[in-house]
Amino acid sequence: MEHHLVLRVAAKLLIPPILLFALYVQFHGDFGPGGGFQAGVIFGAGCILYGVVFGVDNLQRVVPAGVVRVLSAAGVLLYAGVGVWSLLSGGNYLDYGVLAADRVHGQHLGIMLVELGVGTTVSAVMIGLFYGFTSLRP
Amino acid sequence: MLELLALHYNYLAVVVLMMTGLYVVIANGNLVKKVIGLNIFQTSVFILYISFGKRLGGTAPILSPDFELYSNPLPHVLILTAIVVGVATTALALALVIRIHRGYGTLEEDEIERIEAEEQGGAG
Amino acid sequence: MSATAVMAHLPALAVVVPLMTAPLTVLVNRPALVWRLATLSCLLTFAVAVGLLARVLELGPFVYEIGGWAAPWGIEYRIDAFNAYVVLVVTGVSAVAMPFARRSVEREVERDRAYLLYCAWMLALTGLVGIAVTGDLFNVFVFLEISSLATYVLVSMGRGRAAPLAALRYLVVGTVGATFFLIGVGLLYEMTGSLNMADLAARIPPIADSRVVHAGFVFIVLGLALKAALFPLHAWLPGAYGAAPSAVTAFLAGTATKVAIYALLRVVFTVFGARFAFGTMAFDVLLVPLALAGILVASAVAVFQQDLKRMLAYSSVAQIGYMLLGAGLVSEAGLTGGIVHMFNHALAKTALFLALGCIAYRVGTVTVASMAGLGRRMPWTMAAFVLGGLSLVGVPLTAGFVSKWYLVQAALERDLWWVAAIVLFASVLALIYTGRVAEAAYFRPAVPGGLPDRAREAPLSMLVPVWLLVGLNFYFGIDAALSAGVAGEAARGLLGGVS
Question: Backbone dihedral region of C449: left (phi > 0), alpha (psi from -120 to 50 degrees) or beta?
Answer without folding.
Answer: left
